[in-house]
């Protein structure tokens, strides 16, 4: 069974993603330059996530069909900590027209 995150992308098109500047390449981290912008001296934000209808600049593909993170190995901590099948995951899946996940299957 293919992991549902490989076709979903709902989280990438639902939240503002803020993280420590120390996670950016410019500060020695792994989040690629150009995909995030510094919003304070301490905080970066993934491009595309600060809109009423967010879509992360790292999202590749169409939400709900074939979508994935283009920087999965280098994604920031909020993305690493977001759990597939969590309440937040299921809320945004439903908002984007998909079924909620049964967390027991993950």
From TrEMBL:
UniProt-listed InterPro entries: Puta_zinc/iron-chelating_dom
Top-rank lineage group of the source organism: Bacteria
Designated name of the protein: YkgJ family cysteine cluster protein
């Amino acid at each position: 069974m293919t992991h549902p995150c490989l076709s979903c992308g709902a989280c990438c098109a639902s939240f503002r993603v803020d993280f420590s500047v120390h996670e950016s390449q410019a500060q020695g981290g792994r989040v690629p330059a150009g995909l995030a912008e510094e919003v304070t001296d301490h905080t970066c934000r993934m491009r595309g996530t600060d809109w009423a209808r967010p879509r992360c600049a790292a999202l590749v593909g169409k939400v709900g069909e074939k979508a994935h993170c283009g920087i999965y190995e280098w994604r920031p901590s909020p993305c690493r900590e977001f759990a597939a099948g969590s309440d937040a995951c299921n809320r945004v899946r439903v908002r984007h027209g998909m079924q909620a996940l049964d967390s027991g299957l993950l």
